[in-house]
Fold:
Amino acid sequence: MCYRLATAAAAALVAAVFSGAALAQDYPTRPVRIVSSFPPGGGVDAVARTVAPYLQQRLGQPVIVENKAGAAGTIGTDYVAKSPRDGYTLLIGAPGGLSAAPALYKNLPYDPIKDLAPVTMAVKMSNLLVVHPSFKATTVSELIAMAKAEPGKLAYGSGGVGTTLHLSGELFKYLAGVDILHVPYKGSGPVLADLVSGQLMIAFTDPAALEHVKGGRLRLLAQTSGTRLPQIADVPTMAESGVPGYEALNWFAFLLPAGTPEAIVTRLNTELVAILKMPEVMARLDTMAMQAAPTTPQELAAFIVDDTKRWGELATKAGIKAE
Structure:
């Protein structure tokens, strides 16, 4: 009986391997979807739509960007984690749905490390602290002074609970010792709309805000990275602006459902890395203050593990929870 079971199991395994190999050999034979885990108007969506036309050319099949936003990117991430393992549903995700989520959500419906197959890092960037031009504070130090003079009276917006934008704001509050209300939005696009219109005065956002900064519709106070990014080298970091020890890096990456045939993961890694290294793509990302950062699947997997630990430690120290 045991022999028959073992034989059946071995046969099933062999069949699965050959089935995956056959699937990978023909891949792709139909349209591929890139699921953007945030709404239009933000950085994640901008990167997805920058890459999609080039991936379509290289795969020879339509590549469609589909937005499945909400809950700091966890809705779109969960959707991809539970999608068929055939390479036709590709996630572009951010820390909110990947490395920060385990520390903030008690009942996360997926495991970012076990349920997703890393393909490649896409970009790394700094988040930005921006204010409406009418806001009185023109520096981070002035903002801190205002917040300390009126605890709980000021409010900042972010792209949602659990995003690096939210965590950037909470890290600022923790290190600067200020009490500022957090107002979560469903992505950077809605945040920027309210900020530009004057409905909101302060926000932590991604580089999508730079277009408005250049147009004079917003004022940029600081960047959240540990060192100044070359694209905005004239803008000080938070640490340089009176918040010692502050550093919050943002990033976006491509992933597939765990169990996708290795040959498909490799194919998509090859194509995406080549695209991210194209001069025209790098130039486009540069205009958004993003740095192309392609990796191997193994490098991305290790990075996500380390980033999960880092955000988990911050959430514990600062008492950050999903609201």
